[in-house]
Amino acid sequence: MAGTITIKNGYVFDPLNEINGEIMDIFIKDGKVVRELSAAEMKDVKVIDASGMTVMPGGVDSHSHVAGAKVNAGRSMRPEDHYKANLQKTSLTHSGSGYTVPSVYKQGYDYAAMGYTTVFEAAIPPLEARHTHEEMRATPLLDMGGYLILGNNFFLMRYLHDGDTEKAAAYVAWMMKTHKSYGIKCVNPAGVENWGWGKNIHSLDEANIHFEITPRETIKGLSEVNELLGMPVPLHLHANNLGHPGCCTITEDSLKILDGVKPRQNMDVEWAETKMDPARKCSVYLAHMMFNSFAGTTWGDCESGVKEIANYINNKDHVVIDSGCTPFGEATVMTGDGPAIQDMYKLTGNKWSNTDVEMEGGSGVIPFTYFKSNPVHSLQWAMGLECLLLINDPWKTIMTTDSPNGGPFTKYPEVMTWIMSEAFRKQTFSECHKWANDRSELGSINRELSLYDLAILTRANPAKTIGMAHRKGSLGVGADGDVTVYNINPQQLDANNYEALLQAFRKAEYTVKGGEIVAVKGEIVSLPEKRTYYSEVHVEDEKEKEMLTDVKEWFRYYTLGFANYPTPEKYLKNPTPIQVNVVR
């Protein structure tokens, strides 16, 4: 029976329902979790015997770079990335290639093999939304969505400079519908616009050229718009000065701007049953915290500033972060922060790509390798893990590598094992440059996260933070039937045996999506349908008409016509709009 399955006798970890390793059965019917199945349904149901194994909701990656022009640029720039890693065609699956930036088919299979079922693209330039959706559509198995880059948008900078929050909100609502995107992404606020003129911004109160708006005004204004509209996800912030010594100070000050902003998530959805309140409580989602956390003044005296930011977050409730870990080895750095990439080019001399996206932003791509022998790289490895271990409440943290910036998502098993095993951290420390220990706090941390904590960092909290907990990140009645079974017996778990953990996390015993088994021990066995989520945000018709009058007048600065700007729904696979700010 398609979409109907029973997972029996597993140790279940479902934090949104406060289930911590209880032995129980999970029933799925027609792709959704149900309380039970009838005797007649049980006769034909597919049964997975999960005895002695760990059962979690399907993995949710709330920040990854998997689709769009910059991702495709990364693929084309790295031929060596493809001949080193390839996948043969089977009777069921396509061929594919790529390690740090895999082809669309391979990335879907690789995520599913690890137990992930939902992935959100972290940065969509509006003008390139069609391309992004084409790649998301072609990516198999994964339910997807993406955040729209708006922190250097001409229209929004004008409205925010003039203090016209209502028109700014109407514009954001229209853009979400126009480009079928899910939330607001803010990259180097006000600074990327300067990059179009060979400049940048280095403080929160430095106004950019032409628009004369500061990062502080941009961050505050976009957050106010976000909560006025009741968006599913909080403002997704990539802070100024990212990746530079001393950037931890501007990062912490950026978070302080939004202290006191009241979260307002206004989604018209049917919520799955959860014991915890599944609505988000934060007003800012700090992206890839590690890259925003350098202390010091130069690369010669730089050190970890994670502790200072973590202490702030430990005493505040309005911030959630993802870690942006760097697990060593090959990476491809890509970001909407054009000046940050150019600085990396000057440091490394590697091949480099840069682009300006008309009136919306800019980006860059550069191949990169993190070495254990390199002092700064070893420090970054330690800092990424500090982000997850120094913040006390796991509900304020999300595990990522900012893939492929810190490293590819296929390195998640290493990150999972480092945060669960002090022995594995010590073993890696022994191979690193001494800066990893001397200039970070990691060596003094003996905390080891549990499987329950891991389920928060990789399932429950990503789903809750981005407003997908109504159907993702839990195993409550009404949730999507997305389940991961790991060959880990919690009763016999030995954190010192980290090789066993690595092996279990690299290839899930079973990955179930919508009640169908899609992967067994890393092998793809079925290809069920996927969905693409976006926010259909509602505002007053009159406000939208006033805003569109401005937009149509200013649109003459674009290189394409207004009628060709929107992304038609046909570009999406099974488009699934989330109704936002509906007035009843």
For the termini, the CA-CA separation is 39 Å
Question: What share of the residues lie within helices?
Answer: 25-40%
How confident is the prediction overall: mean pLDDT?
96
Largest sheet: 9 strands, mixed
Protein name: Formylmethanofuran dehydrogenase subunit A
Domain Amidohydrolase: 46-519
InterPro entries: Amidohydro_3, Formylmethanofuran_DH_asu, Metal-dep_hydrolase_composite, Metal_Hydrolase, Metallo-dep_Hydrolases_sf
GO molecular function, one term: hydrolase activity, acting on carbon-nitrogen (but not peptide) bonds
Structural features, described:
32% of the residues lie in helices and 22% in strands. The chain is an alpha/beta fold and 584 residues long. The strands form six sheets. Strands 1, 2, 3, 4, 5, 22, 23, 24 and 25 form a nine-stranded mixed sheet that branches. Helix 6 (154-161) packs antiparallel against helix 7 and helix 14 crosses helix 15. The longest helix is centred in the N-terminal third of the chain and has 15 residues, at 165-179. The model has no long low-confidence stretch (mean pLDDT 96).
Which tags fit this structure?
584 residues, Metal_Hydrolase, 27 strands, alpha/beta
